[in-house]
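Incident review: delayed structure delivery

Summary: a single-chain prediction request sat in the queue longer than the usual turnaround. Root cause was a stuck worker, restarted by the on-call engineer. No data loss occurred. The affected request and its eventual output are reproduced below so the record is complete for anyone auditing the incident later.

Affected input:
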Amino acid sequence: MLRKPTLAVAVISAFALVTGTAATASASVAQTAAQTVAEKVEPVVWTPCNPDPSKPDPKTYDCAVYPVPLDYANPSGEKIGIAMMRRRAGDPAKRIGSLFLNPGGPGGSGYLWATTTRFDPRVTERFDLIGFDPRGVARSNPLRCFTTGEEADAVLKRTTEVPVTSAEINSTLAADEDYTDACARNAGPLLEHMSTVNVVRDLDRMRQAVGDSRLTFAGFSYGTLIGATYANMYPGKVRALVIDGNVDPQLRLSNGLEYDRQRAGGFELALDEYLKRCKAAGTRRCAFAEGDPRARFDAIRDRLRTEPVTLPDGSKVTLSTFTSQVANALYVQARQAPLAKSLQALHQVIESQQTSGTLAAPKAANEAAALAVPAPAALREAPADTPYTVDDSYLGVNCQDKPYPSNPRMFALVARAWELEAPTFGRYQAFDAPACATWPAPARAVERYSGPWNRKTDHPVMVIGNTFDPATRYRFAQHMQRELGSAVLVTVDMVQHCAIGQSKALDALVTSYLVDQVAPKPGQLLEPDTDAFPMPS
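Output delivered after worker restart:
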């Protein structure tokens, strides 16, 4: 049992040794960044727009499509459009500038984030809020590997999110290779230029195009990598950067497999804490609190590893739907009490089948049905006016940013090792990126910024981390703070991904930082405003 993890770790470590191209990459990226700064940047041409045509026009929004170079090595060549939306500052007389927003992903559409209410009124009065879809995402020249939905289904329906059997693994890996073949045929030249460094170059152009001498930015999840990269490519152009739900940039850009292994561990830590807090809340507040929630959860998961659970309506809870829904609930505190009800209902269904051979009462089955459907992809939003209505930017960015082995079978090997240390999420995370093994535009030095990460900005970067963030574990936030040249870490004690808008104390610090440029005092541990398991009314 110990040989497989040891082998996988050895392979990952050896892989890390052959990806040490940071110096070459940084020199190339720095040179291109300097060229970008020297070029003339045209202003954005805004047009009034209504973010929700089904409602009266608030007359405070403008939209634009801003052209940027497809390839920054040839800035006068082909252009692509970046879709932008602006909510004008509520008090123009006191306007400071623009606050650019990115929700993460990669592949998250930030366009409608101009409408967000997660910031204090002092922020929205003093800043234009600017949301944008990064290159290849949603409205911004979406990267598409298929031409029709039927073509996509023929490939993607052969994959299993958490494959266990040899047949599931082989089918998934074969489909991944067909997927990357489709990307090579259909995605076009944009495929070569999807990395974060190009998103950052686009962002710097947009900053200049709206007339800001320095960048004010809030990035969430993967958006924290955009912020950290900007701080190091353009340290003299930073006004204020808030990064919430942080990646570890050094690890992510140097070793994709090890980053993903640690990410699986973060999900596992969040799950364990969730179950502990459920037990402490008691059955009146958390439906799954009876007995030993950890043992009961593990029993459900292990049962699903062998076969699905069929519900009275004929739907099936599979290991894949179960795992994706649990992960989805850990992302947002408000989903965690409902998850407990679904877990309890599924437990009752399984218990009924085991003891009497009959299905549980309809109420329990109905609540368990939430675990029978795949969770929607987080932060994805694509316009519904094209034959293939999603985009492939998630892998388009990750496969260019994160170095991975070129042998797809490696992912099956590490899956067996990782699930020993992360039994719920190890295999789930291991099969997140096998397509990167055969991606037509893999990670390469000229399209990546891989350090240094310690260039100093005039004002400290505000780093926010939750103690039990599932997707970007707290250790990543600590590493981000240490790796940056000047940064302050603020911690919120909660099981959730990202924290702004969940704690009035935190939001006050964010407001003071953005508006007044007052950095928070280091070492603060804050509480969320609400409990994951509120007392029923």
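Verification: The two ends are 49 Å apart (CA to CA).
Action items: add queue-age alerting; document worker restart procedure.
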